[in-house]
Design a protein that fits this description.
The complex is a heterodimer. Chain A is of the alpha/beta class. Chain A contains twelve helices and eleven strands. Chain B has a single domain, classed as 3-Layer(aba) Sandwich (Rossmann fold), CATH 3.40.50. The relative contact order of chain B is 0.15. The chains are: A alpha/beta, B alpha/beta.
Chain lengths: ~400, ~280
C-alpha cells in the first residue's frame, strides 16, 4: 500500500561529538562522567555549524520539518538545550521544527512552557514538541529525583498544558510545583497549543499518560514489534479516555542511507551504525538510575536494563531486523518506508539522517537522495494509486 | 530457584516474625529474648542479615523492624522524608507498647535513631549510633554510595570484602537484585536530592540521653573524622573506635561490636560522660 495522504517527512539529527580519544573503548561510559576535557570548543563550534547546515539543507530541499532532541553530559549529543538550536533554525528554515525535547520535569515547567511558546510565536507556528521522561543518564546529570520522575513529569506537563490553554493569570498548587501567577507572555502561536507528543521506550506508564492526555506517542529504540504494540495500546487507551489518535500522532523513526546500489550502501552505512551502538550509546552503569523503573518493570525485565543492541557486541543483522534500518538505492529505501508506514498506519515519517560518526558528504548524499528521489517516489506512488482508484470508480 | 537471600533469613534463626500494619504499611518485625527492649534500626542494605543480634537476646528483648521499603516490610511511596520514618517508628513503638527502649541504629538507621532521639529523648534509655548518617558536615563529606561503581562497593563498605562474600549472589539472582533495587530506590527517595538533614546539627542538643558512638577506624563511607562533630553536638556521648573495621562494624566484627554495645547498655548512668575524654584521647 502506498503512503497515507498528507504523509509528512522529517529529518532528525542527533548532533554527536565524535572527535574522541583513540582509547575511547577503555571508557565504560560515554555518558554522565565521561571527562569533558575531551570536548574541544573550537571543534564544537565547527560541529554546530555543520549540523545546523545539514538540517537547513533538509529544509531547503523540501523535507516537511526537522527534529532535534536533548541529552546531557555526553558526546552522544551536543544538544543539552535544544530550544537554543530551534531558535537558531527558525530564521534559516520554512518548515516545521520538532523539539523532542526537554524532559518536562528536568526544567522549571513554567520556563519550559515559556521557551516553547516563544519559539512557536517566533516561528509563526511551525513548532512541535515531544516530551521524553529523559533517560536514566539525564537524572544522574541533574538533581531531580529519578524515583519520583514520572509523577513529577505528569505534574509538569499539567502545568505546561494549563499555561498554554487557559487564560491567565491562573495558579497551580500541586505536589511538586506551587505557582501563584501563571500568566505567560507570549502565549503560543498555534491554538489551542502546538502539537504535543510523548516519546519513550515503550514503558506502559508513558503510553498511558499519552493516551490520557490525547498526545501523540513514539518510541525510538524499542524493537519494531514492541513499537507497534505500543501504538496499538495507545489507540485503545486513548479511546478509553475519549481521544482519537490520528495517523500523524504515531510517527515512525527510520535510519536511512542512500547509496549507488544496495550492497555498497549497506557497507557504507554499517561503520557509522556500529559506532553509534557500540561507542556513543555506551552508558555503563548509568543506564539505570535508582528507582527509575517501577519494581514491576524491573522484574519484568528480569533485572536487565537495555535491549542487547546497546553497548554490547554489534550484530548488524539483528539491528536491521530489530529497528527500521535501510540502506540502498532510492527504490529500496522507498519500498521499506512504504512497508513500515503501512504497518504502523502512520502519516509521519522521521528519518535519522545522520548516524554515529557519519561524515558530512554521506549525510548530504542521504538528505539529497531522500528529498529528490525517495520522498517524490513515495508521493508519486500514492498519486498513481489514487488515480487508479478514481479510474476504477468511473 | 534458591536465592542467596535464604542465607540472610537464616541469620535470625530463633527470632519470631511479626507482621504489623502501621498506617497501612505492612511492617515486619523480628523479635527474640527477654529483658529491657533493644530496638535495632538497620542501614540502607539488609542483605547481610542481622546475625550479630543473636548476642543481645540473652540479656535483652531484641526488636528488629524492617523500614518501609526495605527487606521484608512493604513499600509505601508516602514514606519519602526522614520525618516520615521518625513518625512511622513512633507509631510502631506505640503499637508494640514500647514505652522506654534502648535504641541502636547503624548508618541510615543511625540517622533515623538520632532524629527519634531529638523528638522523644524521654523515650530512650540509651542510644547507640553505629557510623551514623544524617549529618552534613562541611569539608568532611560522606561518600555518596550512588556514585560508587557497584564493583567497588564492597571495598567502601567493609575493610575485608570476604565478610560480605557469603551474602553475595552467585550468578543471576533476581530475588537478590530485586531486593537491592527496592532498597536503593527507597534510599534514593530519601536522599537523592540531599544526602542528609542539613539542620540535624541544629537540634542534636536535644538528645538528653547517654549515647555511644561506634565507629570503624577504616570507614570509607562516613569518615571517622565525622565522629568529632557528633561528639561536639551530642550532650552525653562517647566514642568507641574499632580497628580493622569499615562502615559496618556489626557485620565485620559481630562478636566484638555487639559486645561493645552490650557493655555500654550495662554501664552505670554517668559513666558515659567520664569515659568520653579517655576514648577521645585514645583515638
Amino acid at each position: 500500500m502506498p503512503i497515507l495522504p498528507d504523509t509528512e517527512f522529517l529529518a532528525w539529527h542527533f548532533m554527536p561529538y565524535y572527535d574522541l580519544p583513540e582509547n575511547i573503548d577503555d571508557y565504560e561510559s560515554l555518558w554522565v562522567d565521561f571527562p569533558n576535557k575531551h570536548f574541544d570548543p573550537k571543534k564544537g563550534h565547527e560541529y554546530y555549524e555543520r549540523y545546523l547546515s545539514e538540517l537547513v539543507l533538509a529544509d531547503k530541499l523540501g523535507f516537511d520539518g526537522v527534529c532535534i532532541n536533548e541529552h546531557h553530559n555526553t558526546p552522544y549529543s551536543l544538544m543539552p538545550i535544544p530550544s537554543i538550536l530551534a531558535g537558531a533554525l527558525i530564521p534559516q528554515t520554512k518548515g516545521k521544527i520538532c523539539v523532542m525535547g526537554t524532559p518536562a520535569g528536568l526544567d522549571h515547567p513554567h520556563r519550559l512552557a515559556e521557551s516553547y511558546a516563544m519559539l512557536d510565536v517566533m516561528s509563526g507556528g511551525r513548532m512541535e514538541f515531544a516530551f521524553p521522561l529523559g533517560t536514566p543518564m539525564e537524572y544522574w546529570s541533574s538533581n531531580v529525583n529519578p524515583v519520583t520522575a514520572r509523577e513529577r513529569q505528569r505534574e509538569a506537563l499539567e502545568v505546561i498544558m494549563k499555561m498554554w490553554t487557559q487564560e491567565g493569570p491562573i495558579s497551580h498548587s500541586g505536589r511538586f510545583y506551587n505557582y501563584r501567577y501563571l500568566n505567560m507572555w507570549p502565549r503560543p502561536y498555534q491554538q489551542p497549543h502546538p502539537p504535543v507528543y510523548l516519546v519513550g521506550s515503550g514503558s506502559p506508564g508513558t503510553i498511558e499518560l499519552a493516551a490520557e492526555m490525547g498526545f501523540g506517542y513514539s518510541s525510538t529504540f524499542s524493537p519494531i514489534a514492541s513499537q507497534l504494540a505500543a501504538q496499538k495500546t495507545l489507540k485503545e487507551r486513548a479511546a478509553h479516555y475519549g481521544h482519537t489518535i490520528r495517523p500523524a500522532q504515531v510517527p515512525i523513526v527510520c535510519m536511512c542511507y542512500i547509496g549507488d546500489d544496495d550492497e555498497s550502501a549497506l557497507a557504507e552505512m554499517e561503520p557509522h551504525v556500529r559506532y553509534f551502538f557500540t561507542t556513543l550509546t555506551r552508558a555503563g552503569r548509568f543506564i539505570d538510575a535508582p528507582g527509575y523503573l517501577s519494581m514491576d518493570e524491573f522484574q519484568k525485565r528480569n533485572g536487565r536494563m537495555l535491549p542487547s543492541s546497546h553497548g554490547g557486541a554489534f550484530d548488524w543483522a539483528q539491528i536491521r531486523q530489530q529497528f527500521r534500518v535501510v540502506a540502498g538505492t532510492a527504490k529500496t529505501v522507498a519500498d521499506s518506508i512504504e512497508k513500515w508506514a503501512e504497518e504502523a498506519q502512520t502519516s509521519r515519517v522521521i528519518f535519522q539522517i545522520h548516524r554515529g560518526n557519519m561524515p558530512h558528504w554521506k549525510v548530504v548524499r542521504t538528505i539529497t537522495g531522500l528529498a529528490n528521489d525517495v520522498i517524490p517516489m513515495l508521493k508519486e506512488r500514492r498519486r498513481l494509486a489514487d488515480a487508479e482508484l478514481s479510474v476504477a470508480a468511473e | 530457584m534458591a536465592s542467596v537471600l535464604d542465607r540472610t533469613k537464616q541469620a535470625l534463626d530463633g527470632f519470631e516474625r511479626h507482621e504489623i500494619r502501621i498506617n497501612g504499611i505492612s511492617t515486619v518485625v523480628y523479635s527474640a529474648g527477654t529483658g529491657e527492649p533493644l530496638v535495632y534500626l538497620h542501614g540502607s542494605g539488609t542483605f547481610t542479615g542481622f546475625g550479630f543480634a543473636q548476642q543481645w537476646i540473652k540479656t535483652h528483648r531484641v526488636i528488629i523492624p524492617y523500614h518501609p521499603g526495605y527487606g521484608e516490610s512493604g513499600d509505601d511511596s508516602r514514606i519519602e522524608s526522614i520525618h516520615d520514618y521518625v513518625l512511622h517508628y513512633l507509631d510502631l513503638f506505640d503499637a508494640l507498647g514500647l514505652e522506654r527502649i534502648n535504641l541502636v541504629g547503624s548508618s541510615l538507621g543511625g540517622w533515623i535513631a538520632s532524629e527519634i532521639a531529638i523528638v522523644q529523648p524521654q523515650r530512650l534509655s540509651r542510644l547507640v549510633l553505629v557510623s551514623p548518617g544524617g549529618l552534613m558536615i562541611k569539608g568532611m563529606p560522606s561518600t555518596d554510595l550512588f556514585s560508587v561503581p557497584p564493583k567497588d562497593l564492597a571495598g567502601y563498605l567493609v575493610v575485608d570484602p570476604a565478610v560480605l562474600a557469603p551474602f553475595m549472589p552467585e550468578g543471576h539472582d533476581i530475588e537478590f537484585m530485586t531486593l537491592r533495587y527496592r532498597e536503593t530506590t527507597s534510599s534514593a527517595r530519601l536522599i537523592w536530592e540531599r544526602p542528609g538533614n542539613p539542620k540535624l546539627d541544629q537540634w542534636l542538643h536535644r538528645v538528653a540521653v547517654s549515647t555511644l558512638l561506634l565507629w570503624g577506624e577504616g570507614d570509607r563511607v562516613k569518615p571517622l573524622a565525622q565522629a568529632d562533630t557528633w561528639l561536639r553536638l551530642l550532650p552525653h556521648a562517647r566514642l568507641e573506635v574499632m580497628k580493622g573495621v569499615g562502615h559496618l562494624p556489626l557485620d565485620e566484627q559481630p562478636a566484638a561490636a555487639a559486645e561493645i554495645v552490650l557493655n555500654f547498655l550495662k554501664e552505670k548512668p554517668g559513666a558515659a560522660r567520664a569515659a568520653a575524654h579517655i576514648t577521645k584521647k585514645a583515638s
